[in-house]
Amino acid sequence: MEEARKGLLGHLNMLEMEANNLELQQQELRQRGRQEELSANLQALLSKRDQLKVEIKANTSLQKMRTLLDRTGVPYERNEDVDDLEDGSDNSQLLLMMARHTQLKDLLHAHHLIGGYDVLQTRKGKGVCVSLATAYEGVYLETYNLEIDLGSNLRICRHNIPPFIPLERLVTQGNMQTDIRDFLDTLSQYLNAYAGRKQQLHLTKEIHSSVQVAESNALCTILVLMFTIPGEKAETTLCTLQYADHTQRLPTRVNIESEDTALASSPQWKKNQALLLETPLHTALVTMKKTGSIA
Amino acid sequence: MDDSTKRLLQRLMRRIPSQMLQTILDKWAHLSREDLHSLDFTQPKWVLTEHLLALCEENGLRVKHITELEMIYIIENPNQGMWHGFQLLDAEEDAPSIELTQFKEQFKANLTELISHVSIKIKKHTDEAIWIRVAWGDNFTKPYHLKPTYVVHHLQTPYVFVTGVTSKHKPLLNQALVLATRYSSMKDAHLSGRNLTAIRDLLMRQYQQVFPTKHPKPLQEKNPVPRNPNIEKEQAENTENRLQMACEAFGDGTLPQLQKAVYKLETKFRDNSNKTLTGREEPFRGVVEFASTNLLESLRHCVSSGMASTPVTPLLSSITQKGRNYFVITDKGV
């Protein structure tokens, strides 16, 4: 019986020892695994830190180059301030290009914010899309787009500019191949003037319902309005506005015809004629209503 | 009223659908109020026609009044018959400053010079379009009003839309238009369809075009097909790209309704497995025609659902980009 008990206890002791050993082994394994994991982490973090350091270095030199460019417009290739550049002229050329690139992008963004045109790269650098915004009296109106193919010759592949704006003529006259800024500026002028005239007509129709539009055209360069003169006779007067300069928002000629032939030569209407030549249509009509020239 | 006028009116009455009759007669304004009230629009059309004929006789209305009625009807419903687009080329110096009265006088003068017996009616519609109706006669006969030609032109644009012109009269019409608009020539824009508004919108780019922008808003598919969420997640970026490309090629929103696109092939046959046809000198002539009730919408759906490969082949995107639906493809290109 003692032996049996000894045997059983011994067996249990042995099992206990084995269990302890196993646990120790497992702990060691776990620790080793944890250690490996941590050292791998450490390696990754170290390499990331090195990468970030390099990026910071590149960015600071880019910033320095950019401030130089902004301040003077001329880059310095060798400068006492820029002493981190060890690789010589190749690197500095690249930095110069990058600085100019960021400068151009910021300039375009600023231009876009003040309502000018904006340029986007498309098709992985093989084309650009120019979006021209139009605005009148502080209100944004339509945006027109041009997609230009960047080959050996610049070519407009598609656009949504209305057909009465003479695009082909502007392309040849403005020399789109050599001076794209000139072309875009002129195009923007035409579009903004057209949008301005259209908006003036729209506001006139909305605000001044007593004034009737007898004739208008799509480009908004000819406008014939009918006024009613207050008085017992309630005569009508025809006013023709011609905008011969398509880049302007004000008319070049104002003609007044009336059933009462003396009306057109009266001093008040001479003043009105001058007013229509100098102020936008809807504001001119407000003044004319106030002075009692029209109903 | 003579027989031909009566026939004209009868034909016109048969064309105008009953529901529009009253509004069109109101617009015409050549019948007095009492006469209009006396017309009973619930009667069958042939009775109405007889009544109308009698009223017209009473009021002494003539051919020019009946043609006015026809013009009003066509302006209200332009999407019938086959319209062809033409493009004017090489504007002269004063083309941008042509105004309406000048154009009207010039056109009438030119056309009557070319052919002495024509009946011309010009009307300006509220959307800045000029509508011209021409009935052709020749040096010995009076103008034949049963087959008129209609022309639509927007001033200061280089596009003209014509329907109902025969090949005999086409060069005369072209010449008169070219002289009146102060351009130097006119060519076929290779765009035709039954729907005038569609071809006009396409040529004058009045549909909603899509351009690449800095902050692309995710375009929503208008008619979503039944979805499987797992497939959707994997394919989300591809679907968005395809949709963007489809909309850039064809437009967004409602598209102009074209019915057909025709590609005439004059290219050499190039399949090596067919020995008889390959290697011949002459081009293999064939015609590929796409037809649909709304062709652009179907093409856009093909691209956005992946049935047509992207980037969109220029053969298909030329329909919207160049505003044509008839192409001749040679080995050198379109």
UniProtKB/TrEMBL annotation, chain A:
The lineage of its organism: Eukaryota, Metazoa, Chordata, Craniata, Vertebrata. One of its GO terms (cellular component) is Mis6-Sim4 complex. It comes from Salvelinus namaycush. It comes from the Eukaryota. Keywords: Centromere, Chromosome, Coiled coil, Nucleus. The keyword Magnesium does not apply. It is found in: Chromosome, Centromere; Nucleus. InterPro entries: CENP-O. Residues 12-55 form a coiled coil. Belongs to the CENP-O/MCM21 family. This is Centromere protein O.
Automatic annotation (TrEMBL), chain B:
One of its GO terms (cellular component) is nucleoplasm. It is found in: Chromosome, Centromere; Nucleus. The keyword Isomerase does not apply. InterPro entries: CENP-NAC/CAD_complex, Chl4/mis15/CENP-N. Pfam families: CENP-N. The keyword NAD does not apply. Belongs to the CENP-N/CHL4 family. This is Centromere protein N-like. The gene is LOC120025204.
